[in-house]
Amino acid sequence: MFSFLYSQEKKMRLNAANWLEVAERVHKFRRDQLTDAQNQRLLGAATAVKQGLKEKVDAGKLKLTVESLEGVLRDTGGRIYPQSSLVENVEFFLVAAIVILGLRAYFIQPFKIPTNSMWPSYYGMTAEVFQAGEEPGLFLKTARLLTLGASNYSVVAPADGEVHFPVFATTHDGTHYSLRPAFVDKPGRSLLVFPTMLREYTFAVAGEQARFTVPAEFDNDFQGVLNEAFKGRAASFPEALRASANLHKPLQTSSLTVKGQNTTVYWIPLGKHVRKGEQILSFDVLTGDLLFVDRLSYNFIKPAVGSGFVFKTGNIKSAAMQDAAGTQINQYYVKRLVGTPGDTIEIKAPVLFRNGKPIEGADAFGKNALRDGKYPGYTNNNGGLKVGDGVQASDGLLPVGAKVTVPAKSYFALGDNSPRSLDSRYWGFVPDKDVVGRPLFIYYPLTSRWGPAR
Questions:
Q1: E strands in 16-144
Q2: Average pLDDT over residues 234-259
Q3: Which domains can be identified in the chain, with CATH numbers?
């Protein structure tokens, strides 16, 4: 590393010692394959280098003996020497991979925050919507990609006319309808390599459709994109939909295949008129926080209340811990530890109570209790949270007035963004054996959050 500070003589002596190591390796592994004459030449050349080192001859003489040894090694080294650059590179990457896997398994593991359940302590994917003419140019897109992990999504009008958007409509009484954006889930690739799920949405203009996909984890935050882009004079995008929709009058309908079944969708006019080639929608999705997780500490100390902690979900058996196909979710989650074995947990919105007292141990607890800044406060349930088929907000463990006691060998975990967090209120307790570690350092994106994790 600091070889540039060495004298020529010291550099030559270090070089000679390296050649002796190669000669020893060749003799050890190939002496049975070499002829007696080759073995004698190899030992003789190595002895000359050793003698030069012992007698501390000048760099010029030592160089001659090293060059002689190298010539013998070229004749006797086989696969050990000379090595091609390809072999050297393969060995380097194999060793690097082994080191990285070892670090990941026992010390430090990279982790990406996918959703905003821990916002604003940790950010999941967030969006920035651009109005017409405000879209960033190529240079700015590149800069945002490098510093913020921003991916741009643009939808272009396929024809002239009014923009329509498909919705699912459900009703309990035939009069009042609940509308939500229609979508189709599709398998895809993250970074062109890793399998992931994508969510496809569609706009239509004059009967022609324009489709685009976003990461499935971004679904809840996509509602905010629609709010900003299309709410118009309404307070929110859903209100704009309800203002435009009259499901008792004929509307254009079609079907989407959802979970293997054809489902009717209604095409709602949005009141926005475009010409072919114009932007219907343009926005950036900014990556969630990428952080390092300390996997070592919890092998020696127990997690403390107030710590952010990462755990595996494979052994949390709950309908709320299943995907749309009913398959157990087996991922890494990050939440904040609020209850250890024997603790009694209660929520009196917006305050979280542990053993009858307002909980302490993290800044997020106090800020949520006061609804300070971006912290929304703790909630008993959330009717707007999409927790999966068969799981309603009222199915949680902490409805109003309820208390829960954490059983042995278990933990209770909540998100800092309580109204938007699918956590222990819905899927129950975290087995202590599945705790992985604690957030250590946010290394990307390059924002004010870069640095030690809170």
A1: 108-112, 126-129
A2: 63
A3: 3-76 (1.20.1270), 108-116+288-452 (2.10.109.10), 138-286 (no CATH)
